Amino acid sequence: MSAYGGPLGIDFRFDGLVANTLQAHRVVQHYQQENGMEVAGKIIDSLYKQYFEQAQHPSSPETLLKAMTVAGINEAEAKKFIEDEDEGLQDVKMLIREQASNGVDSVPHIVFEGRRRDFTLEGAKEVPEYLKVLEQVAKESS
């Protein structure tokens, strides 16, 4: 990971907690629905930076608040949403169950739709594996 991140300015740390991310997913899902992908993307970017580079807990109120305010969400609104841990929780759990029923149990989970068949890559893969699948999709599509 460090070898891939370094050239991109990402200084991965591996001393942080491995923790439940359900509350982070709840925040992202809510603001994606309410404010769109741009705001959700900014939240995700901040969460990734805090978790992977600063070894912060991925779902702590402090981490979530920082991510939300970096994304332009009013601090009072952000705090209110963080404190109500039930708002939107059932929606996120339903989406998780839905994906699990589709066979998704790891991230990333990428499906390339081919003309004759689909190709699925699960988990972290090397670039050559993606190229191989894309070349196969192109070959079967011609």
Can you walk through the features of this model?
58% of the residues lie in helices and 7% in strands. The chain is built from seven helices and two strands, in the order ααααααββα. It has helices at residues 2-5, 22-35, 37-53, 61-70, 75-83, 89-101, 127-141; strands spanning 109-113, 118-122. α4 (61-70) packs antiparallel against α5. The longest helix is centred in the N-terminal third of the chain and has 17 residues, at 37-53.
The helix count comes to: 7
Q: Average pLDDT, to the nearest integer? A: 93
Q: Share of helix among residues?
A: 55-70%
| Number of strand segments | 2
The separation of the N and C termini measures 35 Å
Strand and helix layout:
Blueprint: H1 2-5, H2 22-35, H3 37-53, H4 61-70, H5 75-83, H6 89-101, E1 109-113, E2 118-122, H7 127-141
Antiparallel strand pairs: 1-2
Helix pairs in contact: 2-3, 2-6, 3-4, 4-5
Key traits:
mainly alpha, two-stranded antiparallel ribbon, 58% helix, 7% strand
Brief digest:
It is built from seven helices and two strands; from the N terminus they run ααααααββα.
